[in-house]
Amino acid sequence: MHHQSLEGRTCLIAGASSGIGAHLAQPMAAAGANVVLAARRTRLTEEIAQAIAEDGGAAIAVPMDVTDGTSVAEAFSLAEDRFGSVDTVVANAGISRYGRSIEVAEAEVRQVIDTNLLGVHLTASEAARRMIAAGSRETGAGRIVIIGSITAQLTGQGDAAYAASKAGVAHLARQFAREWVRLGINVNTVQPGYIRTELVGDWFDSEGGRAQIAGWHRRRIMAIDALDEMVLYLCSDRAAHLTGSTITIDDGQSL
Description:
This protein has eight helices and seven strands. Helix 1 (19-30) packs parallel to helix 2 (42-54), helix 3 packs parallel to helix 4 (106-133) and helix 4 (106-133) packs parallel to helix 6. The chain has helices at residues 19-30, 42-54, 69-83, 106-133, 136-139, 160-179, 207-215, 228-235; strands at 10-14, 34-39, 58-63, 88-91, 142-147, 185-192, 246-249. Belongs to the short-chain dehydrogenases/reductases (SDR) family.
């Protein structure tokens, strides 16, 4: 049971075809939001939108490549055609390319930075342009939530580009929050710990993954719904006074 209301809001979720983005669509719709599932893999997002509709919610799937500004703008336009102005965005799209830095190909590093950092910039800035045009300065209704990662504050083996991109995202969000603070747009980052999603594949079923879990204080991996209440709160009217924050939800994994 979620206690936040998103009635009357239209939320675009970037990276909604799997993992955290796909999961968040259901509780956001249940909280009353019109949900726009934006991703390249529209077959998957269409299935999620259909499931939401069958549960009585409102959702559509739109194609969006976060590394392409034209594609991002077109996704917002499709959302507006169906639901009107988008006042809420969850920037969740992300990829990883694991391996030692001296072995990871340049093209793979570019993919990570383009998706995880440039993609957030393009998504959030397009959202802000639309929100401002729709009158966010007067309503104070703009909400942008960026999904980061605890790797932004850790060092490890095999994920340097990913971790650096997430560190960049956290500061980018604060820059956006400062830039738009008088324009009625709140920007916050949620940094989750490790969750079993498509992004990490079957790592946590391997010997190394099991050893990693055993090394955490609570010796468990987080459930995918661990972020629900915080993300819904940050998207709601109740979060009117919260902007520029970076919130870690990791079950103590980074302690």
